[in-house]
Specification:
Strand order of the largest sheet: 6-5-4-1-7
Structural class: mainly beta
Distance between the termini: 4 Å
Strand content: over 45%
Helix content: 10-25%
Largest sheet: 5 strands, antiparallel
Order of helices and strands: EEEEEEHE
Radius of gyration: 11 Å
Length: 72
């Protein structure tokens, strides 16, 4: 899927073992993303790192117009 970020926000960063390891800023622009109902949205950044949003946060960002899904 492809998403467009209108206004920057903080996603979560995961360690190699899958545990939470802090925040990962997401700046405005277009990104490739993957959605998993159990894990939420993972946004692939140009650095190769991924930022994660839980389902509730994903829905909130879409409702506020901060994040737009442009292709599935």
């Amino acid at each position: 899927m492809q998403v467009h970020v209108n206004k920057g926000f903080l996603g979560r960063r995961h360690a190699i073992d899958g545990s939470d390891s802090g925040f990962s800023p997401i700046t405005p622009g277009d990104y490739l993303a993957r959605f998993d109902p159990n894990e939420g949205l993972s946004i692939l950044k140009s650095t190769g790192d991924a930022s994660y949003l839980k389902l509730a946060q994903f829905e909130e960002k879409v409702a506020m117009g901060v994040l737009v899904v442009i292709a599935i």
